[in-house]
Amino acid sequence: MGAPTFVVLSLLLLLSSTTSSAQLTRGFYNKICPNVEQYVRSAVTQKFQQTFVTAPATLRLFFHDCFVRGCDASVLLASPNNKAEKDHPDDISLAGDGFDTVVKAKAAVDRDPQCRNKVSCADILALATRDVVNLAGGPFYNVELGRRDGRISTIASVQHSLPSPNFNLDQLNTMFSSHGLSQTDLVALSGAHTIGFSHCNRFSNRIYNFSPRSRIDPTLNLQYAFQLRQMCPLRVDPRIAINMDPVTPQKFDNQYFKNLQQGKGLFTSDQVLFTDGRSKATVNLFASNEKAFESAFINAITKLGRVGVKTGNQGEIRIDCTRPN
Questions:
Q1: What digits encode the pLDDT tens for the residues 183-242?
Q2: How far apart are the first and last CA of the chain?
Q3: More exposed terminus of the chain, fewer Cβ within 10 Å: N or C?
Q4: Which residue numbers in the chain have pLDDT < 70?
Q5: How wide is the angle at C-alpha 125 spanned by C-alphas 171 and 80, nearest 5°?
């Protein structure tokens, strides 16, 4: 028994180390491009001042990138025949402002000859994400760096890789734990919906045809449901966007959790965090203690940024973020 078990364990260790973040460090670019964070911050601030959508769009882009093939900027790759990650129905709704933010930040970094083509698109996206969270009123946190860019982006890899708006807690936990993220991480990262927006078709079943016995989802605040019906009439323009936090939609704060306590979670996958007893205490903690939420969010997004990263001589440093070298 001893030897085969040992071989299996060694293989498991090898497999886990390929997706680890052992090589990510805060000062990765200190000698290569010492001003990288200022360049990114400056470009992101400029873009953020033009449109607030920059914040939710960049944050969601980072999440969608990391959950598919790891944080390797594969979501940014364009395909001549629309077969890339960004062409999948789950990614089609990624707002263009997120992509534009990375492109602008990359251009700002590359204007310094010392930095040109030395900083990965994956790291630029991770830094831009931190900056938009902070610019929207959320915490500032240090970002681990050293990711390399992936060369592959396929529409198929997105299938079943991203959480659905109608997931229950078990489905959410299964998906997040497959990336090494705990239930607390899941609740904290869901708090990003405090600046999110959505299109009506992602939740219309909750306000119009939830079940034969109840047209409106009984876990949804009734007054809120009628407000949503006004904003989302049955034949609504599919481009209409609805704020996920109706109270402070342009502030990264803990209001999202207070909304859940009142039955005002937009998605089933939001509201379930409060209705399911296993995660309810975490929602209550974050609703009553913004510092506890911020601290958990920093921990969770740092762990998210380590998912499936390519480091060392894996991948490449993309010259153009939208195509492999």
A1: 999 999 999 999 999 999 999 999 999 999 999 999 999 999 999 999 999 999 998 999
A2: 47
A3: N
A4: 1-22
A5: 85
Which amino acid does the sequence have at 60?
R
Cβ proximity of 143 and 131 under 8 Å: no
- Amino acid of residue 195: I
> Annotated catalytic, 179?
no
| Element holding 41 (H helix, E strand) | helix 36-50
CA distance 289 to 303: 22
Write the DSSP symbol of residue 312. Answer: T
Q: Which of 64, 88, 160, 179 is catalytic?
A: 64
- Bridge partners, 197 (sequence order): 243
d(CA 68, CA 201): 23
Question: What does 202-263 look like in DSSP terms, one character per residue?
Answer: GTHHHHH-S-SS-SS-TTS-HHHHHHHHHHS-TT--TT-EEESSSSSTTS-SSHHHHHHHTT
